[in-house]
Amino acid sequence: MTDQRLERLRRLAPELRLLTDAADLEHYGRDWTRRWTPAPLAVALPASADEVQSIVRWANDEHVAVVPSGGRTGLSGGAVAANGELVLSMERMNRVVGFDAVDRTLTVQPGIVLEAVHNAAREHGLAYPVDFGARGSCSIGGNIATNAGGIRVIRYGNTRNWIAGLKVVTGSGEVLDLNRGLVKNASGYDLRHLLIGSEGTLGVVVEATLWLADPPPPTQVMLLALPSFEALMQVFAAFRARLELEAFEFFTDRALHHVLVHGAQRPFAEDYPYFVVAEFASGSEAREAAALAAFEFCVEQGLVLDGVISQSDAQAAQLWRLREGITESLARHKPYKNDVSVRVSAMPAFLAETQALIERGYPGVDVVWFGHIGDGNLHINVVPPEGMAQDVFVAQCEQVTDLLSAALARHGGSISAEHGIGLVKKPYLLDTRSEAEVALMRGIKRVLDPNGIMNPGKVFDA
Ligand code: MLT
Ligand code: ZN
């Protein structure tokens, strides 16, 4: 049965690269969540939009589910194939296909790695400013599918802000050429934005046109040690008022512990409970004086206990490593991840409530807090106690997440700030989105993907 379906696909697209070896199924069937056992039917590696369209049409005829796949660095299970799906890996479609100096756009295939997009923009004297730790592995198609955020959202916004045009193959096999790089386009519903963040449930991106920005100013990085959670938002306000912030990130002593174990260099001789990495425009006396003034103000107010400022790119990279190394340093423990957001103005009240909730929910457990505090986005990672079975651990964590999700609903927040709903956060979708909204989302899926073949079971059940 299986072979016949794949044989028919081979006849439809004779040049298509198809993998069925056990090692390939294992490799392409999972993402960074590592919670589900991969079990795809096969892996297709198309080289063109035509091949993608043939695959999607075949999948409709054969009723085979398709899991679009980029760098599989996702943390919500959005790219997991555990139920006989066809993995549609875009990794061979990884080229820059055009640059326009007047429009200041870069047109790329979806499988291009984010870092290659950064480099291509830099070669043209411009910048693609969306950035995060997985830059060396994640693909632009996956970034678009999750409306990825990261460390510079505070300054540049999410991926959505930078998408000038999208070519997609919808679940029904139609090719749409959306927005075509137009700055102004008041011609009805903007379907481009519907596809961005849809986690592969409506269609698959086959080409993207990205806006580029001016190259960033010279910057410096400060690492600050703070006495309390309460000080965080006050330091943020003080820094935002005085400096042109490019990033403002926080982490706790537990996060520092894990990155130090993982080989990072200890920043301060003393121990402190909370840390901030702030990057800001520098390169002039006025800017440097403003940075010093912001720091001194916070020290005088008792909001900052210690600090260090980068004097070179190498030092800046070293300080960033303390923040960017957290995910990798935790990965071997298979932590339970929360990626939540509230409005920045709601953060002080939400932080206080959440801290109490987490302390009650996880007595004596290693809970690692970090995140993009300037965006109202917290990552709360829970490390399983030694020897605890994964299913028991996840079940316990989900009880706490029920409470966290209810707290988010009270504060008008979201159960997924930037990782997506995927499989991991599906049980909590209705705390964040109303029943009417989810019903509309289902209706939209039925229109674009009438046979329900695009990443079924992700975001909501079929
Ligand atoms: C990060 O900001 O480092 C990742 O989005 C968070 C994570 O690993 O939970
Ligand atoms: Zn993050």
UniProtKB/TrEMBL annotation:
Highest taxon in the source lineage: Bacteria
Cofactor section: FAD
PROSITE patterns for the chain: FAD_PCMH
Record-annotated membrane-spanning stretches: none
Keywords assigned: FAD, Flavoprotein, Oxidoreductase
Occurrences of domain FAD-binding PCMH-type (ranges): 36-215
Flavoprotein listed as a keyword: yes
Cross-referenced Gene3D superfamilies: 3.30.465.10, 3.30.70.2190, 3.30.70.2740, Uridine Diphospho-n-acetylenolpyruvylglucosamine Reductase, domain 2, Vanillyl-alcohol Oxidase, Chain A, domain 4
One family name in Pfam for this protein: FAD-oxidase_C
Record's keyword annotation contains Cell membrane: no
Family the UniProt entry places it in: Belongs to the FAD-binding oxidoreductase/transferase type 4 family.
Protein name: FAD-binding oxidoreductase
UniProt source species: Lysobacter korlensis
